[in-house]
Amino acid sequence: MDIKVTLTDNPKQKFTDEGTLGFGRIFTDHMFTMEYEEGKGWFNPQITPYHNFTLDPATVVFHYGQEIFEGLKAYKDENGAVRLFRADKNFARLNSSCDRLCMARINEEDALMALEKLLEIEKDWIPTSLGTSLYIRPFMFGTDVRLGVSASTKYTFAIILSPSGPYYNNGLIPVSIYVEDEYVRAAPGGTGSAKAGGNYAASILAGQKAKEKGYSQVLWLDATRQYVEEVGAMNIFFVIDGKLVTPKLNGSILPGITRDSVITLAKDLGIPVEEKQIAISEIEEAHSKGILNECFGTGTAAVISPVGELFYKGKKMIINDNKMGDKAQLLYNKLTDIQYKGLGDKFGWSKTLNI
Ligand code: PLP
Ligand code: COI
After folding, report:
1. Residue 228, C-beta contacts closer than 8 angstroms, at least 6 positions apart
2. Is 264 exposed, middle or buried (0-12, 13-18, 19+ CB in 10 A)?
3. Is the CB of 233 under 6 A from ligand 2?
4. What is the pLDDT of residues 82-137, one digit of tens each?
5. Rounded to the nearest whole angstrom, what is the distance from the C-alpha of residue 232 to the centroid of ligand 2?
6. What is the pLDDT of residues 224-275, one digit of tens each?
7. Of all atoms in ligand 2, which is nearest to the CA of residue 258?
8. Which ligand places an atom closest to the C-alpha of 203?
9. DSSP letter at 145?
10. How far is residue 254's CA from residue 233's CA, in Å, rounded to a whole number?
């Protein structure tokens, strides 16, 4: 793929304090875009100054939500080495999302190459302190101009970059989560396992109501309201009587790359792990017996976020005295050592870029 590069002649002022970055609020100087047309394939790959899109009001994405995205991070260590963590998995998942939303698949190697080229240009935007990184947001949307409901024949694929701090303002301080027993995020046969913008639109109301009650996010149950699925922007893990348990992939939860990494790391550390259907009643029971040792969420943005309280049907379950548990801390250390420094990476997950 031959990428045309046009550099900005008006670079933005870079951040000066990594401690105040927040999540996804500022964007770098450049972006990658390419276009797709049925019969022609992907064309016009470009890196350009960060810019607005100009779209006709009848563009299909505005009406029928044909949009998918990914989230991954680039890390820089103190020696200036830039690393990506399992980026191939993100582009593979983007293609699975494409399949579910009837969108045009990308060439995963080309997308990775485009990202590396963009990172080469933007490497000075990567923050270095622990907990900060360059958040990468690849996304795609349908650009046909018409109001009929069917798959678009044209798409735009883009990558933007955002220097970011922790997803939750409090970093590793445990979050409180509301177990949602009214609204449902996804159901069998739906789009829950795709990273589609529409899934997030459908989740906002419950998230907003939970926030009004003082909770950071919701823990979704399945369509029967019996089994635990995942949190708004992360997969969920419990430590019950020393065993790490997480809902098995059932087609309606997102197959998280951090989830997969945590399962692999835990097994490697000799921690027993089980992926299974978990009833919320089982969590209540474990809590009342005093064997719900820990709970935490995993995600690219959230990394490993301890959960200190689950609120379900009027009852508060305080977990591990509202403190980060030993297993969550151990897994956080192992994961971030690999992500930031490539340290202890037996799995070949961390790729140092030659930039
Ligand atoms: N579940 C949802 C709904 C998410 O938005 C995310 C974030 O990407 C995850 C889980 C975690 O996935 P990953 O670890 O691949 O970032
Ligand atoms: C990520 O962790 O990359 C996500 O996409 C979560 C996002 C919804 C903020």
Report:
1. 219, 220, 221, 222, 236, 247, 278, 279, 280, 283
2. middle
3. yes
4. 999 999 999 999 999 999 999 999 999 999 999 999 999 999 999 998 889 999 99
5. 9
6. 999 999 999 999 999 999 999 999 999 999 999 999 999 999 999 999 999 9
7. 2
8. 1
9. B
10. 9
Residues contacting residue 294 through CB under 8 Å, at least 6 positions apart? 237, 238, 239, 306, 319, 320, 325, 326, 327, 328
Q: Look up tokens 């829950």; give the residue.
A: 192
**Tens digits of residue pLDDT in 34-91:** 999 999 999 999 999 999 999 999 999 999 999 999 999 999 988 999 999 999 999 9
Give 173 Cα–ligand 1 centroid separation in angstroms.
Answer: 20
Question: What is the number of helices (H) and of strands (E) in the chain?
Answer: 7, 18
Nearest CA to 172 among 130, 209, 212? 130
Cβ atoms within 10 A of the Cβ of 95, count? Answer: 16
Radius of gyration of the chain (CA): 21
Please give the residue that has the higher pLDDT: either 131 or 292.
Answer: 292
CB 144, CB 154: distance < 8 Å: yes
Q: How far apart are CA 17 and CA 134, in angstroms?
A: 14
